[in-house]
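RECORD TYPE: inverse folding
INPUT: structure tokens
STRUCTURE:
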């Protein structure tokens, strides 16, 4: 548990225990059910307005290099008029960075903790949204890589890369989409809790969130276009291979027919079964093959 005090107090709890809940119970009469929920992850994002405090569950996407996709992390907020309590279940980069910045910068500390809990909550959630924006940079990097490699004849490898990016965008969207409803609800209840002065800050959070979704939608459109292009290139390559096999099959038909005809016994009535007959058949077959190859090349089939 870490505590930073100013005009308002920020309490940050990592991996809450029963002792932590008991400490919070002594600080403020939070509902026992709310406190019990802090012991485990929540299945959905939500904001709830009680008589003298707010309870907020915020889910943020975090990229997992092992899974090659985004997974969900959670921060819970208990907000009173003079305390902001954040609870998370793993080390989170935005919380760690913000804590160090506030703790080591007196000017920032005064700006963040020298007003009300609405201002502190704004800066905390803004940092989380900024982190979420940074988390989609790897998607942009993957899209740039695919764009550069897609025309180098490696369509099969690109198909796998495209599939990973599509899954990552989908997982990121599943995690972040509920925050639109959450932040709009937070705007509504926040104005009731802190007054109209908080409206401009809470509106700014909604705007920052929409910037993230706009980038995500752009990436979704780009990856779909790249998938279509890669599919067309793969189909073209497949068609070229099938065309060559078809031509080879066509070449073998006259050869097989010719060989069968000259091997029939009645040919011996006209051409004696001598070495000359063998070489005559051989040369005829070669001439036929070469002629067909030249004709196919002129037609552009080979």
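DESIGNED SEQUENCE:
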């Amino acid at each position: 548990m870490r505590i930073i005090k100013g005009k308002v107090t920020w309490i940050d709890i990592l991996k809450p225990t029963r002792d932590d809940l008991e400490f919070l119970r002594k600080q403020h009469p939070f509902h026992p059910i709310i406190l019990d929920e802090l012991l485990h992850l929540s299945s959905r994002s939500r904001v709830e307005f009680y008589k003298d405090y707010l309870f907020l569950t915020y889910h943020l996407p975090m990229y997992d290099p092992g899974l090659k996709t985004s997974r969900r992390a959670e921060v819970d907020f208990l907000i009173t008029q003079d305390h902001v309590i954040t609870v998370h279940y793993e080390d989170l980069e935005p919380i760690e960075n913000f804590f160090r910045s506030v703790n080591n910068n007196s000017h920032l500390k005064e700006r963040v903790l020298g007003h009300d809990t609405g201002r502190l909550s704004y800066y905390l959630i803004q940092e989380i949204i900024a982190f979420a924006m940074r988390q989609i940079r790897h998607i942009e990097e993957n899209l740039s890589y695919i764009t550069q490699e897609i025309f180098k004849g490696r369509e099969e490898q690109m198909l796998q890369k495209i599939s990973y990016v599509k899954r990552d965008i989908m997982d990121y969207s599943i995690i972040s989409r509920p925050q639109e409803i959450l932040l709009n609800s937070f705007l509504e209840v926040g104005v009731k809790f802190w007054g109209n002065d908080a409206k401009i800050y809470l509106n700014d959070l909604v705007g920052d969130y929409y910037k993230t979704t706009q980038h995500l939608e752009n990436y979704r459109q780009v990856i779909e276009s790249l998938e279509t292009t890669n599919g067309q290139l793969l189909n073209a390559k497949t068609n070229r291979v099938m065309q060559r096999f078809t031509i080879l099959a066509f070449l073998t038909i006259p050869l097989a027919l010719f060989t069968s005809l000259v091997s029939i016994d009645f040919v011996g009535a006209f051409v004696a079964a001598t070495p000359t007959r063998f070489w005559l058949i051989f040369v005829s077959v070669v001439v036929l093959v070469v002629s067909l190859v030249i004709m196919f090349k002129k037609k552009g089939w080979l």
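NOTES: The chain has a mean pLDDT of 83.
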